[in-house]
Each structure stands twice: as structure tokens, then as C-alpha cells.
Amino acid sequence: MFDNEDDSKQLSRRERERKRHREEILEAASEVFGQYGFEKTSMQMIAEKAELSVGKIYTHFKGKEAIYRELIEYIVTLVHQRCEDAVKPGMSPLETIRVKMRTAMCTFRDHTPFIRLYHEDFDIRKGRFGDVECKKPMMDISSLLKEAIESGEFSGEIDPEFHALMMEGAGHILMESISRSGTDSFDKITELLDKVFLKPFENKKQQ
Amino acid sequence: MFDNEDDSKQLSRRERERKRHREEILEAASEVFGQYGFEKTSMQMIAEKAELSVGKIYTHFKGKEAIYRELIEYIVTLVHQRCEDAVKPGMSPLETIRVKMRTAMCTFRDHTPFIRLYHEDFDIRKGRFGDVECKKPMMDISSLLKEAIESGEFSGEIDPEFHALMMEGAGHILMESISRSGTDSFDKITELLDKVFLKPFENKKQQ
DNA sequence: TCATATTATGAATGATTATTCATAATATGA
DNA sequence: TCATATTATGAATAATCATTCATAATATGA
User: Fold this and answer.
1) Rounded distance between C-alpha atoms, residue A73 and residue A118, angstroms
2) Do B173 and A169 touch (CB under 8 A)?
3) Residue (of B100, B69, B109, B95) closest to B82 by Cα position
4) Which residues in range 38-67 of chain B are in contact with strand D, contact meaning CB within 7 A of any of its atoms?
């Protein structure tokens, strides 16, 4: 899951094993953090879930916070990347938003522990770890909305900044609430967001 | 602020002072919890903000969690009460929703530290303190939406349960994001929520 | 196989902080 | 005013972890 190197062949058995351990720690940590949140998760819990010792974790990571940061970085980059890949040339801004929305939902569906993590990160950014750098926008819906408005594809009635913000808020609460209801409920989320946030503001194809 | 007794006249000077201390602790706690969140707030911080000793707090409250719970209870009850009071007989379900929404926003505007608190409580309900009882619905938008749909006032296109959930999510993220921009921004929130969640689904007055 | 190097372990350390409680300060009222 | 009762204080206690590190276990390769 966290294997994103492509030169595995070059590595010795020991090196490969070490790499695998690192990935197992991240995997375990994502589950425990995802279930209990940052504060209530102890290194002991991560070690137990990964079936290795606490000390071992420290040969791979500087500490608890470093693991957490790496997980956030991982999910943000993954969603960002998948969204970029899903967009094909010639798509209108509004089509792009729909595709990105669907892609992001699918990614979270396959990484449910990250839902809480990502949500929690929102809090953490404002104070728990002090001020931290602004992360790269996962989908940047707000710029796309702006484009859609400029092209006349979308109603300019609502400030796109706030429109995007509301989508994020609504999307999160939906994910948190129904992610446990199975795979297909993620399709429902996409559908709901579309019905509320896009369709009503979409202008009939002009000309 | 937390003074909700009406028999103050019966109390001796000492009793009144004690009551005032209790309220000052709650006031201080709401500010500190609101700024730093539950985990990062220490009893020391609350004591300093309230300008009294740590030990004193324990003559009023069982502990940190008890204070926190009382604050949540306070804001939930307050919003609930004000929303009930704002509704006048004869209002349609949709009008009721609008009034409650505006009332809730005004209440949070006057109690900004509680925004974070209430938001955080959402997390806490699922695990930080273990499973806890379900709290009384502040506004119960979902039932009102159901009524509005039944009366033909509102489109039944979207499941009212999810519709209400999305409103809550969007409302929170807006409050968290723009509450620092001053008093009038709360009006903006109400307006935004109305434009996205109500207007587009409102049926033209039939007959 | 054995000496040496590498790695893994989890108990010890140190820091934090909720809670308690012995002591100090204050109030009461005779 | 003084003896006694009440209240306030913040240092001591206890519990919880993140992190480190001395020791044990394992791997290496001669």
C-alpha cells in the first residue's frame, strides 16, 4: 500500500525486509490513528498493531508526529495525483470538478482510515502542532468553480471560495457518517454532493 | 453568562460569591477549550484564565471532563431553547428551518468559543470518551425537511437525513473559517446556507 | 562453528498533567 | 481579640506516554 518505490529489484533481502517493516508501520498507524485519533493513539498501540516493538518504530521514524505527518502527506498526495490523472484534455471546468469529486471519493473509499485522519488534520493545522505550512490543495475546487463561472457554465450567485468550502464540509460529514455502510455508499456521497452543489447552479447549455 | 438561576435573592453573600466563581470557571474554560481544544487544555490554564487556584476548581467540578461536558450541555441546550423560542405558531416547516438557522447562527456569533467546542464534541462522541449518550438535537432540521417535503413546500429529491447532515457540515466549516471576520459574517453564513440548501429545492407556491 | 557486527526488544527515563491533600489564609462569632 | 471553622493554595502524588538505551537476539562470513 505504501510501496511507492520502483527499484525494488536493486535491494538486498535485508533492505527489502526493512522497507516492508516501514510500510507495515505506516499501515498499522493509519488504522490506529484513523480509529482513535492522534492524541489517543500511543506508540504501544501502533507497535502492537504492526506486530513489532516500540523501539523498532524509532529506527524508521523520528517519532509519533513524524508518522502522522507522513500519513497526511501520503493521502493528500495520493488524492491529488489521482485527481490530476483522472482529468482528460478538453473537459470543461464543471466536468473536471465532477471527475475529481468522484475520484477523491473512490480514493477515500479504498482508504477509509484516512477519512478521520484527514478531517483531524484540519484541526491540527490550526494549533495542535502550532502553525504549520499550508498543504497543497487536493482538488482545488474553488479555482475550477471560478473558471466555470467565467465560462458561463455555472451560476456566479455564490462566492466560489465559500462554495468549495461548503462542499468540503458536507463531503466530510457524509464520509464520516456513512463510510461504514459499505462500498456503494461512496457513490451515494458523490451523487448527493452533485445534486446539492452542482446541478442547481449549472446553466443550461447556452447557444 | 452561565447564570441561569432566578433565586439569587435567597443566597447569602458567600453563596453568591461561590456561584459567581463557578460561572467564572465555566467562562474561562469555554475560552481556553475553545482556543486549544480539550486535549491541549490543562487545568492550570483554566485556573490562570479564571484567576484562581487549580484546587479551587475541584471544589466546583469533579474534573476536567465534567467541565467540558457541562459546557457542551450548556451550548446545546441554549441553542435548542433559543430555536424553540424563535418559532412562532403558523410558520411553515421551511420558514421554521430558516428561523432556526438564523437563530442558531446568532447564538454562535455571541458564543464564538463554543464553535470549536461543539465541533470537537462531534469527534468526542465517537470514541474519545468512549461511547456516550446521544445528545438532544439542537434544531432537528431533518424532521422539518421531511415535513416540508410532505407538505409539498420542498423538493423530495434529496433524502432529508442527508440533506440536514450536509447543512450541519457546511455550516460548521463556514463558522470555523469565517467566524473571526466579525459579527456580520454570521449573516453571510446564513445567507450562503439558504442559497445552497434551501432556495434551489423550494417549490413555487402552488395554487 | 565461532567471533563480530547488526538489529530488535521492552524496561528505564523523563516530561507532562490531572487530581489530591497537607498547610496556609481567611472568615466567623463569642 | 482569639479560638475555631471554613476555604484557598499550590506543591506532592500518581498515571500516562513518548522516547531512549542497555541488553538480548540474530545475522554474517571467516
Assistant:
1) 10
2) yes
3) B100
4) 52-56, 58-59
The DSSP letter of residue A126 is E
Closest CA to B140 of B74, B84, B200, B202: B84
Whole-number Å distance between alpha carbons of B31 and B27: 7
Secondary structure class of A130 (helix, strand, coil): strand
Cα(first)–Cα(last) distance of chain B, in Å? 48
Per-residue pLDDT of chain B (207 residues; tens, 9 = 90+): 887 655 445 566 777 889 999 999 999 999 999 999 999 999 999 999 999 999 999 999 999 999 999 999 899 899 999 999 999 999 999 999 999 999 999 999 999 999 988 888 766 554 444 334 445 678 899 999 999 999 999 999 999 999 999 999 999 999 988 877 877 889 999 999 999 999 999 997 654
The whole-angstrom distance between A85's CA and the closest CA on chain B is 28
In whole angstroms, give the CA distance from residue A23 to residue A5: 11
Residue with cell 453568562: B1
Size of interface A-B (CB pairs under 8 A): 79
CA separation (Å) from A34 to A28, A56, A77, A120, B64?
Answer: 10, 21, 18, 9, 25
Task: State the CB neighbour count (10 A cutoff) for residue A180.
Answer: 8
Beta strand ranges found along chain B (DSSP E): 126-127, 130-131
- Which three three-digit cell numbers place residue A199? 446541478
Decide if A37 and B196 are in contact by the 8 Å CB cutoff: no
Three-class SS state of A199: helix
Is A14 exposed, middle or buried (CB count within 10 Å of its CB: 0-12, 13-18, 19+)? exposed
Question: Residue A166 and residue B158: Cβ atoms within 8 Å?
Answer: no
Nearest neighbour of A173 by CB, restricted to B169, B193, B196: B169
Residue B207 CA to nucleotide C4 C1', Å? 95
CA distance B9 to B6: 8
The whole-model pTM stands at 0.89
